[in-house]
Amino acid sequence: MTTISEPGTAGLAATASAPAPLDSATDDGSCCVPSGTPAMSADRAEALSRQFKAIADPNRLRLVSLISASAANEACVCDLTEPLDLGQPTVSHHLKILVDAGILHREKRGVWAYYSLVPGALNSLAGVLTEAR
Amino acid sequence: MTTISEPGTAGLAATASAPAPLDSATDDGSCCVPSGTPAMSADRAEALSRQFKAIADPNRLRLVSLISASAANEACVCDLTEPLDLGQPTVSHHLKILVDAGILHREKRGVWAYYSLVPGALNSLAGVLTEAR
DNA sequence: GACAGATATCGATGGATGTCAATGCGCAGG
DNA sequence: CCTGCGCATTGACATCCATCGATATCTGTC
Prior knowledge:
Two copies of one chain form a homodimer. By secondary structure, the first copy, chain A, is an alpha+beta fold. Chain A is built from five helices and three strands, in the order ααβααββα. At the A-B interface, helix 1, helix 2, strand 1, helix 3 and strand 3 of A face helix 1, helix 2, strand 1, helix 3 and strand 3 of B. Chain A binds a DNA duplex through residues 31, 53, 57, 59, 76-78, 86-90, 92-94, 96, 108, 110-113.
């Protein structure tokens, strides 16, 4: 499981709002101030990267879109192969990546496998981008 | 330029809320309902993928974090090489990718190049994930 | 104008990734 | 039990990508 991010940690975004009158280019030869705040750890960056990589593929983006746009917010593989114009193994591969990233949930009912969105996953990822604004 | 997404189009997310009593596995032999809503186009998926790929790298995530956590919301290359433990050409390469994706803004002042967040970029990307909820 | 420092670009290389064909596995029906 | 169907897994292949060393470009200085 990928823990689906954990709000409250160092994130990104500040959406442009420079309070300091940019005193950059100090006279001591340095170009700008060291940093100030701790920013994001390498571990957290690695974990978030795994989730962002999962949706950073056009076909996987469409998969998630198809599922979320589906009637019962779920879909089986057979309904996803045609609109993406991909082979069944490839779709299954992409779905596995999304499941491993904690974005999709897989439930097998009889012969079919139904994929649905994990409730807070995408919102949590979106929170990382808007965090600390 | 990458257009920075355009809210109002088909996005993702629905955050789990199955109103229909999942009448799946219809008796006609099909597994589930065809789809219902148009979902996301291939073109839009490709465009969004470019932006998500840009931040789907641990080092680039840290770069954005470092810049947004910086004092004046901007930083030059020399301040970004150490915390990432990467060579200067590599950092410059990552920054170029973020600029090309429309996430960072580059401004050269004298000898130094200052990178800052493009105001609405991350929020726009986040909106894609929470859209249509 | 020559020089030094900061940054960008180029070429090469090892590793990650998307795609497919072939195959295996589990479930339902006869 | 055997067959058909939906899906997952494997192996192979081509491509992309992150990283580095070397080098080019630009800017301010002496």
